[in-house]
Amino acid sequence: MNEPFTDAEVIALAQAFPPGPAASGLLAEAGVPSQHIPTALGGLTSNDFWRLVSEAIKAGLIENGRRRILEAAARRFPANPAFQGKERTRRVLFIGSSPDWMDVLRADRELREIVRRSDPARIEVHYRPAADVSDLQMILTVRPDILHLACHGGEGRIYFEDAAGRRQPLSGADLAETLRLYAEEAGATLRGVVLAACHSAAIAELLLPYADTVIAHAGDFYDDCAIAFSGELYRVLPTAGSLGAAARIAARHVASSRPLCGDLPQTLVVLDRGRQNPDENAA
Asked: In terms of C-beta density within 10 A (0-12 exposed, 13-18 middle, 19 or more buried), how is residue 178 classed?
């Protein structure tokens, strides 16, 4: 996970983000610790600056640095192919649950829509239906880019199901602690978390330290809307430039085609680590 930049990426970064505020701002947005940002003093050229950053990534000083920096650069220059990275396949871990005695969620249909509408050459889906809390351990074996949780939510919790179908609540704080443990102790870091659950905005910020982007929803998130949104999200993701951009585009597309989901752009919440996130409910 400590792959350095290619020569083409160094040149593109040097042209777009010269040493000084432009480069420092990009690195801060990507979550690079300030002690690992080279000083621009002493006549350091832009190419030399970015080669020093690349060396720090290769040495393991900036965990997942290439990916994080290129994704931040792609958000600013989505049309620049040099910022798209060599590995375009996203690995998604889909975990779904619908406990008994709660409204039925068709996580199976949501999964089917994702598989049906996404490009298998760009989106690789692993899944666990009828999941209990322990199924989060799949993060350690699958090593997904995106964790997608399709479940009920509310009161600062999401709900899994045990072997008997009874609901199994997990607080946002406990979910965040699980992701922290996996990231810090096992190096299982996430590009994104998608909370396909009602009222999941209440826990989104708790997860942001352990994922580059968190997608959540404020208020109700009807099952038909969740199915349509998730399918569209992964359809547009490879060309959208970022998970957050894909979520906004998907929300707008679904809202315009399904009256039931008309408020989806307003209830969508997108949080990006390393960027200032105002109360972001707008598409």
From this structure: middle
Confirm if 14 and 50 have CB atoms less than 8 A apart: yes
Instruction: State the pLDDT confidence band at 150, using cuts at 50, 70 and 90.
Output: very high
d(Cα 165, Cα 40) in Å, to the nearest integer?
59
* DSSP secondary structure of 62-120: STTHHHHHHHHHHHH-TT-GGGS-S--PEEEEEEE---TTS----HHHHHHHHHHHS-T
Q: Cβ neighbours of residue 103 under 8 Å, at least 6 residues apart? A: 152, 223
Residues 6+ apart with CB under 8 A from 87: none
One-letter amino acid for residue 139 of the chain? I
For residue 281, pLDDT beyond 50:
no
pLDDT band of residue 80 (cuts 50, 70, 90) is: confident
Task: Give just the sign of the alpha carbon dihedral 45, 39, 87, 82.
Answer: negative
Q: Name all contacts of 256-260 with Cβ < 8 Å and 24+ positions apart.
A: 257/228, 258/224, 258/225, 258/228, 260/222, 260/224, 260/225
Q: How far is CA 224 from the centre of its chain?
A: 22
